Amino acid sequence: MLPVNINLSINGKLHQIEAQENMPLLWVIRDIIGLTGTKFGCGVSQCGACSVLIDGQLTKSCSYLVSSAIGKEIFTIEGTSKNLEFLRKAWNDGNVPQCGYCQSGQLIAATSLLNSIENPTDKDIDDAMSNNICRCGTYTRIKKAIHKAVALKNETL
Length: 157
What we know:
Layout: E1 4-10, E2 13-19, H1 25-33, E3 51-54, E4 57-60, H2 66-69, E5 73-75, H3 82-93, H4 103-116, H5 122-129, H6 139-156
Parallel strand pairs: 1-5
Antiparallel strand pairs: 1-2, 3-4, 3-5
Helix pairs in contact: 3-4, 3-6, 4-5
């Protein structure tokens, strides 16, 4: 299959690229556009390291074809939003990462959660984060950081 010209909107910026239509979005984001915060983990949509938001929906980019992303708004860990900024601060304050490999996917999943539920319960957090694997087991820290991000956000209102 020959490469084609593709326009993608990532973090509010238009990118004109050349890629094969059946290329996974993850590789376009990392290798063609150069945004390396989104990670390759398993390649089969099981671990969540490759998570991005597409039109606001949590999506695993390792199995999402670039052709399906045309005309949609893609948001990666390099993007900015109020919820992500509060989460980054809470992550840092809570010393959440150990190896750090899964953290970009964890932060994107948490952003998706806070975009849909302003004050999530522990169950909401468990449900929303259950598709993101942390091989270091920092799940308790992640949950605390999400609650702290909500508190930080509420302090600024």
